From TrEMBL:
<feature type="domain" description="Endoribonuclease YicC-like N-terminal">
    <location>
        <begin position="2"/>
        <end position="155"/>
    </location>
</feature>
<dbReference type="InterPro" id="IPR013527">
    <property type="entry name" value="YicC-like_N"/>
</dbReference>
<keyword id="KW-0540">Nuclease</keyword>
<dbReference type="GO" id="GO:0004521">
    <property type="term" value="F:RNA endonuclease activity"/>
</dbReference>
<keyword id="KW-0378">Hydrolase</keyword>
<comment type="similarity">
    <text>Belongs to the YicC/YloC family.</text>
</comment>
<dbReference type="InterPro" id="IPR013551">
    <property type="entry name" value="YicC-like_C"/>
</dbReference>
<dbReference type="Pfam" id="PF03755">
    <property type="entry name" value="YicC-like_N"/>
</dbReference>
<dbReference type="GO" id="GO:0016787">
    <property type="term" value="F:hydrolase activity"/>
</dbReference>
<dbReference type="Pfam" id="PF08340">
    <property type="entry name" value="YicC-like_C"/>
</dbReference>
<protein>
    <submittedName>
        <fullName>YicC family protein</fullName>
    </submittedName>
</protein>
<dbReference type="InterPro" id="IPR005229">
    <property type="entry name" value="YicC/YloC-like"/>
</dbReference>
<feature type="domain" description="Endoribonuclease YicC-like C-terminal">
    <location>
        <begin position="174"/>
        <end position="290"/>
    </location>
</feature>
<keyword id="KW-0255">Endonuclease</keyword>
Length: 291
């Protein structure tokens, strides 16, 4: 089966007065490339998160995000009352000496001074993390399902183009025989135009003609191209998606098409080769997004 590298998964949960949203997006890439954005509280689990993602998604450019919204009235930021009072009294004394009245602006000024507001960092609750980890796996399952659906559309398009190449290969045959006859006729006509008056070694001429026609023979290329197409179908039908392997096979298909084109020496076959290349380019473009 063919599976896409494109996918999106999302999970939402509420735990310990927090609403947590997990979002994972994947795009095509040659290798696994993971970018994580997590709150400081969960930063220690970054390596574990990357392993879970790489085991499940295998390949692709992955963006992983955790968003946390507090549902309670408590905050991690606290006002240090003793320090604030100390600042305020000092400012009040300085104001009295300078003859400046003390009012609410003095309190605002004190609030901006160092260490008035302190942040208390909470430690990670392992039970909370177990719940989050389960939801990360759920979001990854959603991506995997998304990839399967995208893969069906890719498979239809890719195999459709390979089948077109396969059919075009059969269309070459009618022109192949007439091409050889045309080459023979042209050589004979050219030889006659030289007016050699029979001074031609027929055996040597036939040997040279056979050697020349062998260079134009595309039977081996046709057999190999046919085999490559069949191998492509076989690989695409495997249980595990193998985009890299299909990419290598498409390269081999391209080599045979190019060789047929270089040996063609016939406008009709050249047109068929151009159509083959067009279908192959579509295959290669779509394979960039296959897992």
């Amino acid at each position: 089966m063919i599976k896409s590298m494109t996918g999106f998964g999302k999970a939402e949960l509420e735990v310990n007065n927090k609403k947590i949203t997990i979002e994972i997006k994947s795009l095509n890439s040659k290798q696994i490339d993971i970018n994580t954005r997590t709150p400081v509280l969960y930063r220690e689990k970054d390596i574990e998160i990357r392993k879970i993602i790489s085991d499940k998604l295998v390949r692709g450019k992955v963006d992983f995000n955790i968003y946390v919204e507090s549902l309670g009235e408590e905050s991690n930021s606290k006002i240090n009352e003793q320090i604030l009072k100390g600042y305020f009294l000092q400012l009040k004394d300085i104001g009295a000496e300078l003859g400046v009245a003390t009012d609410h602006r003095t309190l605002h000024a004190a609030m901006r001074l160092p260490d008035v507001v302190k942040t208390e960092y909470e430690s990670l609750d392992e039970e909370e993390w177990e719940i989050i980890e389960a939801n990360i796996k759920k979001a990854l399952d959603d991506i995997d399902s998304f990839r399967d659906k995208e893969g069906l559309a890719l498979e239809a398009d890719i195999l459709g183009n390979v089948k077109s190449i396969h059919q075009l290969l059969k269309d070459v045959e009618p022109f192949e025989k007439q091409r050889i006859e045309a080459v023979k006729t042209r050589l004979m006509d050219n030889l006659e135009s030289l007016k050699m008056n029979g001074n031609v070694d027929q055996n040597r001429f036939e040997q040279e003609l056979i050697f020349y026609l062998e260079k134009l023979d595309i039977n081996e290329e046709k057999v190999r191209l046919n085999n490559h197409c069949n191998y492509f179908y076989e690989t695409a039908g495997l249980k595990e998606s193998s985009g890299k392997k299909l990419g290598f096979i498409s390269q081999e298909i391209g080599r045979e098409i190019n060789t047929i084109g270089s040996k063609a020496n016939d406008s009709n076959i050249q047109r068929i080769v151009v159509h083959m290349k067009d279908h192959l380019e579509r295959v290669k473009e779509q394979l960039l997004n296959v897992l």
